[in-house]
Design goal:
Layout (H helix, E strand, L loop, with lengths): L12 E2 L6 E2 L11 H14 L12 H6 L6 E4 L1 H16 L4 H12 L5 E2 L22 E2 L2 E4 L1
Parallel strand pairs: 3-6
Antiparallel strand pairs: 1-2, 4-5
The structure holds zinc ion (ZN) (3 copies).
One zinc ion binds next to α2.
Length: 146
């Protein structure tokens, strides 16, 4: 077996953490893929106390500790009732989701949900995702009624 060492044809290795195929370059010469290498760096920072008082939303350990606040939209009770009423009428009229989303954004400042690109959704062995928790597969601000 001959491996050619040049920028375009790096020998493939398996990431030590997520077992995806990667190249030694991706993880700065470690046996990690770029993503796991990045997360390992964040975990080091976390363990050194660099996230104390300033949680990093990308850091898996901050997420686990629950110190990263989920994005929220706050809304007065009457306004939330208007929103629910609008959605119920729109659904009854079989309004297209795109139109409902555009209306919610314009009238209520609620951004549409986005597909979560968390690693968990590409891996059948992971059944929790810190990025979109508690929703599964969708991220976006939660609505908090005040
Ligand atoms: Zn990895
Ligand atoms: Zn952290
Ligand atoms: Zn997710």
């Amino acid at each position: 077996m001959s491996a050619r060492f040049n920028g375009h044809n790096q020998p493939k290795i398996r990431c030590n953490v997520c077992h995806k195929l990667t190249t030694p370059n991706a993880g700065g010469g470690t046996d990690l893929c770029a993503k796991c290498y990045h997360e390992a760096g964040l975990e080091n920072e976390h363990q050194d106390g660099e996230h104390k008082g300033a949680p990093n939303p990308e850091c898996p350990m901050c997420k686990e500790a629950g110190t990263v606040e989920p994005k929220e939209v706050t809304m007065a009770r009457g306004r939330a009732a208007d929103l629910i009423d609008y959605v119920r009428v729109a659904l009854a009229n079989r309004t297209l989701p795109d139109i409902i989303e555009a209306h919610l954004k314009d009238q209520f400042g609620v951004e549409p949900l986005k597909r979560c690109d968390g690693e968990a959704h590409g891996n059948a062995h992971i059944d929790n995702c810190g990025t979109c928790m508690p929703r599964w597969g969708w991220t976006g601000p939660r609505i908090k009624v005040t």
